[in-house]
Amino acid sequence: MARNKNTFVDLLTAQVGHEFAASQQYIAIAVWADAQDLPQLAGRFYSHSLGERNHAMMMVQYMLDRDIPVTIPSVPAPEARFSGPADALRLALEQEKQVTRQIEDMFQAARAESDPLGEQFMLWFLREQVEEVANMNTLVTIAERAADDWFRIEEYLARENDSSTNTGTPPSVAGGAV
């Protein structure tokens, strides 16, 4: 049973806005990290910002392909002040957990509406969210262990690759991926 009474298309439209909001939040984290002379952390979040933007545009392309009217929702201003990297990363982790719940709701709505194409579309995002939450959880753990030695976070990020393990073919991106 779906946790949300909205239709799949309503939830998908809202998710476009959530993905753009996540992109903006990651830019804010990246800019904060850049201002703190944390280039590895900044680079990671600049990159993640593009990933979130691409997720929104995958959803837009899906709606275009299915002849569903597309509305681009407005997004709230991101949080831009953090007490340290762990604070910024905890915010990012909570955001990823929220996105996971939203993706689950969309999958459940598609299933409840007997929309197998919608269900299939959401499967890639469900796999992606498992990876996103796990990666962000690891970064929070590293930042908390590093405490005030922010250079240890930079060392970790320089050493560890951020490559995706989601081997499924990603959906098409409207306008092309960046």
UniProtKB/TrEMBL annotation:
One of its GO terms (cellular component) is cytosol. It comes from Dietzia lutea. The keyword Transmembrane does not apply. Gene3D superfamilies: 1.20.1260.10. It comes from the Bacteria. GO terms for molecular function: ferric iron binding; ferrous iron binding; ferroxidase activity. Residues 2-147 form the Ferritin-like diiron domain. Pfam families: Ferritin. One of its GO terms (biological process) is iron ion transport. Fe cation binds at E19, E52, H55, E96, Q129. This is Ferritin. PANTHER family: BACTERIAL NON-HEME FERRITIN (PTHR11431:SF127), FERRITIN (PTHR11431).
